[in-house]
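Q: Joint fold for the lines below.
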Amino acid sequence: MISIKGLKHYYTDADGKEVKALDGIDLDIKKGEFVAIIGANGSGKSTLARHLNALLLPTEGTCTVGGLDTVEEANMWDIRQQVGMVFQNPDNQIVAAIVEEDVAFGPENIGVPSEEIRPRVEKALAAVGMTDYAKHAPHLLSGGQKQRVAIAGLMALEPDCIVLDEPTAMLDPQGRKEIVATVKSLNKDKGITIVYITHYMTEALAADRVVVMEKGHIRFMGTPKEVFSRVDELEKLGLEAPLAAKVASELRKSGIKLPKDIITDEELAQALCQ
Amino acid sequence: MSINLTNVFYTYMTGTPFERQALNDVSVSIEKGEILAIIGHTGSGKSTLVQHLNGLLKPSSGKVTIDDIDISGRGGEAKKARQQVGMVFQYPEHQIFAETVYEDISFGPRNRGFSAEEVDKQVHEAMAFVGLDFDTFAKRSPFQLSGGQMRRVAIAGVVAMNPDYLVLDEPSAGLDPRSRNAVFKEILALHKERGIAIVLVTHSMEEAAKYANRMLVINKGKILFDGKPAEIFSQHKDELVAVGMDEPQVYKLSALLRSKGLDIAEGIADSAELVKNIKKAKGWR
Amino acid sequence: MLSEITLGQYFPGNSFVHRLDPRTKILATLIYIIAIFLADTPLAYGILIGFAALVIAVSQLPVGMVLKSLKPIWIIILITMIIHMFTAPGETVVFTWKIFKITEEGLILGTKMALRLILLLLFSSVLTFTTSPIVLTDGIEKLLRPFKAIGVPAHELAMMMTIALRFIPTLLEETDRIMKAQTARGADFSSGNLLERAKNMLPLLVPLFVSAFRRAEELAIAMESRCYRGGEGRTRMHELAYKSIDYTAFGAVIFLAVGLAVLRWGAGLCAL
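A: Joint structure:
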């Protein structure tokens, strides 16, 4: 679905210094996969995300989406229709003053015939569980609801992949739960490929694969089990491992034999109390 | 030395169809020197409550005093009392306006009427507290700093007012784990060295359990619980879940291990202590 | 305070007026305004008032609420009335005090002007009360489309209005938030002379502009991500189409205007 090869992205900052935001990224994302990208602020994860729908173009290397190279300008709109993007601030991505009007914005842009837009809007709102709010004003919704509207706005474009760039950073715990549940269901029930960028390790646990970034590089990746059991390495990168993994790692350090891949409470309890 | 709320009620948009009772007979006393966490889901009234602490909102009925001075008055004494309470709002970097970091941080202390030397001293100290090197940052434009640095400038701007009480509304929102820990380290240092009261509004049970020595749980404009975080989390778990709160991860894990027969003490607030308990329970060294 | 202003708000409903095409309502309002300026006899004003009352009744809006829309500008109405009363030339003096005098002509002119303003406002507020801002924007865009040839950016104007409508509440909230934050830092927005006050506003205005620009930038990126590329080739979820009720409404308002024109110039025409 998405193939990134030798991707570098350099830019010049306000002080005239060259910044290597991405410095040689290789990553393949399969159709239907749920990939989480974690990394501290400034690790390059947002820059990477913005290459996936041609908002940014590589300085070097290639990024292809469904076989289309993002560098080709002729491919841009096809790519953006295929790969939707949700941003951090829920307020700054809703265009219209009525929820359903906002969801219709994408299909209107790509010239979907009028009579086909409404069914698309209804389907998209149903997919994120916001059908009851179709006629509401977005500014009166909660943060989690706004983000779900934003996701519905993308679903109405019938994309293959949705990229979420720290979608829960500005939400309360309730909103975070809503978004994680919504994203999981889009992935499992609708087969949407998900690229999910986050600071919250608990959210990354839902992914098939976790990619860990630092300073424009991918440091390591693997299943959540593989990644989150590397407690010390994560901490060195300014990230937090799940509590159970941390406790298991501490116990192992004092010489106690425990399986290496403990990341959940249940796994730890089982290992300790068998 | 304390902030006292006595029978405070607050109603939004009185007399309109949008009328909503945000605080319903709240009485609480916040002592100088404590670290108080206030938790509650969005819309519970916790933001409304803290805005009463320095007179940004005036109670529909009831009384707020700071160090025994009624702060509802218009006089100089009431104003002075209100300024004892520093307030760091959510995403405080959005309130930065001045051309240089120095100018922005000095805004508050100048408004308090500090002398030029006093302002200078406070700015230096505040920047040191939040870990911004004076020579590197004082003359720079705050708008060219990173998000985490801007947050520090904004917090310094409130710290420089030299308040006796410091209210922080989700100071770690949107930061990565490393910056989150750094911000809390700075707040704790401030508390320790100046002995001021910290009021921490948070959605994170972990933060409340880890940093606070007292906790208020707000629900539907009322104080549901007031006590030590460890006690509330271990004694009122079900009630917390019922009002949309949770218990900290470390409590959950402790409870699970206990239910499997391990002898783990109640009220463990961090992972290091849990590790110690597990070892002891298993008889390892 | 802000919440008390009903002017410009939308009240959902399903009346005859609500169901009209927005273009019909915009054009009908324009025709009615022309009719207002055609009227110059008490009979003509009576007809105008009757027509407005009829429209308000058909729209099923609460009368009190429609009248409330006059509230924010009643002072302007009053001033207009007083100025005309005192300044109109006339012979028949009804009242004098020192150098001020009110003539019968002045009284009539003042009343007339006030009535015109009131009618204009009432009728336009029926338009906004019965038409959602989005639909209104669509209507304006469609009406302006023929003028694209002479350089009127119909789509861009409409998109700007849509975004403004969406972001006004957000920016109001933001203003409130920043104001509170700066107040907590000891800022004073209400005392001092004009220059001092303007200077005191900087801690509010700078962050507000910074935030508005940041929002604009993020919104632009979000819109691009959703394949926005200008008005070319765009479709709409609601395509506007005139229905029979629109023709009825046009008929009624044109009949009114023509009737008033005849009332005004009819005598002259007969004399020819």
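Q: Anything notable?
A: Residues 1-131+242-272 of chain C form one domain. Chain C has two domains: 1-131+242-272, 151-237.
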